[in-house]
UniProtKB/TrEMBL annotation:
Annotated stretches, region: Disordered: 32-51
Protein name: NodB homology domain-containing protein
Ranges for domain NodB homology: 60-235
Signal peptide: 1-28
Matches recorded under Pfam families: Polysacc_deac_1
Entry keyword Signal: yes
Keywords tagged on the record: Signal
Cell membrane listed as a keyword: no
Amino acid sequence: MTRRGLAAKAAGAALAAVLLAACAGAGAPVDRTGGKAPEPARGGAGGLPPVVDHVPTRDRVVFLTYDDGAERDPRFPALVRDRRLPVTLFLTDTVAGPAYGHFARLRAVGASLQNHTLDHPALRGLPHLGQRAEICGQQRKLNARFGVRPRLFRPPYGRYDTATLRAAADCGITAVVLWRAAPDPSGALAFTHGEPRLRPGDIIAVDPDRPKGTALTGRTEKVLEEIERRGLRVGRLEDYL
C-alpha cells in the first residue's frame, strides 16, 4: 500500500473510533439513583423531542421541578402561592391520582402539571407501544381531570431510549426533561455533571418522596436559599421550552 493509502487508512480508523465513542455515549440515561451521566442533547433530531437538563438562557433563572406526587405536604400550596413559585410537577397517575384534588389546588396557585407516565415503569428497553401507552395514557388522564395537555415529559428514574422519544413525540410531547441538580439527603444540591454550582438555566429536581426527615416545604425552602444566594430566581420552565 502507498504512503498516501496508509495515511488515509489511519485517518479512517481514527474517525471510526471517534464515531463509535460518540454513539456509545449518545442517549445515555440520567438516573437519580445511578450517579453521573453525560449532559443531554440540546435539540431534537428527526422529529424527536429534545432531552434537556439545562436551558440556555441569559436570564438569571433556574427551574424547580417535582416528580410522582406521592408527598402531599399541606403547607406546600401556600409556599407556592406566597412565593409565587412557577413550579413544574411531573405526575404519575397511580401515585398522584388518589389526591388529584391536592394538585388542583397547586395548579390554582401557579403550578404546572406535566407528564410522568401512568404507572412509573423504567421505560428504557420496553417496546415502543408499551411506552406509548404509558405516556399517552397519562396525557389523557391529565386532560380529562384538569383540562391540560402536557408538552413536557420526565421519564421515571431519568431512564429513556429512542423508543421513549418516539413514543413521547407520538403523544404530543415537545421536550423530555431531566435535571442537572437535586438535593441530597442533607439538603445540599448535588449535580449530575459539570461545574458543581447552580447556573442560569439549570433544572432542579426536588425529590418529593422522602417519608422521613424534612417535609417537602422545608426542603424547597432550603433550595430557595441557595437559589437566592446565587442571585438567581425561579422561572417558569414552560416559558423556556
